[in-house]
Amino acid sequence: MVDEKSLDAIFRQARTHNGFSGPVSDAQLREVYELMKWGPTTMNTQPMRIVFVRSQEAKDRLKPALSPGNLDKTMAAPVTAIIAYDLRFWEYLPRTFPNRPQAIDGFKGDDKLAANECTAFRNGSLQGAYFIIAARALGLDCGPMSGFDNARVDAAFFPDGRWKSNFLCNLGRGDPAKVFPRNPRLSFEEACWIA
Amino acid sequence: MVDEKSLDAIFRQARTHNGFSGPVSDAQLREVYELMKWGPTTMNTQPMRIVFVRSQEAKDRLKPALSPGNLDKTMAAPVTAIIAYDLRFWEYLPRTFPNRPQAIDGFKGDDKLAANECTAFRNGSLQGAYFIIAARALGLDCGPMSGFDNARVDAAFFPDGRWKSNFLCNLGRGDPAKVFPRNPRLSFEEACWIA
User: Fold this and answer.
1) Model confidence, pTM
2) What is the spatial distance between Cα A107 and Cα A91, in angstroms, rounded to a whole number?
3) Which among A36, A51, A194 has CB closest to B193?
4) Interface-testing mutation among A126, A140, A162, with chain B (most B C-beta atoms within 10 A)
5) Digit-coded pLDDT (tens) for A26-36
6) What ipTM was assigned to the predicted interfaces of this complex?
7) Mean pLDDT of chain B, nearest integer
């Protein structure tokens, strides 16, 4: 069981941030990955990939893909994670799912492309959420965003088409003064049904 | 910051379980939702929906959709959550995203169906991961599964087509003796790139 203070840190008091300061070290980024990697995925497929955009060159490449509302805060953030997924995630299966060596055969072939993309998107998104929770748990504030042009990010960062962008997440120390008022959540009765 | 014991409970020591005992109360299910609901989603869209399969009638409806490897453990679990998403999630936006009342217009119309399904799948999956982490944090063990026939679950539980199944998650007190050996994770260098 996790104590109340920790539940606050990862869920109840954690907020989506809009203003960030640094520094964020490479060691911190690695620490977040080394924690979030333990989250479960279908057949341990782990399709999520991340580009940590930190250099001015990489920021300049990202910039044209951002929607106006996300532009300034992202350019000013110490790091922006491009949460992506690998369409050929299954190539790692002989090592990552050794208990069923023939599993890889279920992913090979052009007739599997649509199912593979579904698996990559589902599990890459699960892992994206693990990433947000892990970052918060380790003291980094997050600013996840869907407001950008995925095709432009893909053309700029993944020209060979193997990785696809999913969402973006600014990282750093959040400025509480720039957080928006918290919006309401659906009730249990609206979202859930006990059958 | 979250202490080491809590990081173990939600990530490092948490495992996907295959044998479960109860009881799991309605109050516990509600508690998990009331925690995970705070996780962030695009424009606070919150598309995830959950059917908690608990009654024999509901188990019988779920049963024909399960793959052989997931059948017995799921029929024996105290509760199985069908993690789903609502394709018309955006109808709640005037209440859940009140700061931009015109936001709902961006989701209306047949030409928005594909983009809406993408938003529902991405964010419904993020919320599915929040659900797993929240359940673990509150002392429930999880057995998430993709091995089932989504179309059959949808026909059995969501015949009007508004909700779509995403993945399943058994819930209860896990039996450590039935946990499989832990499979390896990708290294930071394989999954991440600092640009």
Assistant:
1) 0.98
2) 9
3) A51
4) A126
5) 999 999 999 99
6) 0.98
7) 97
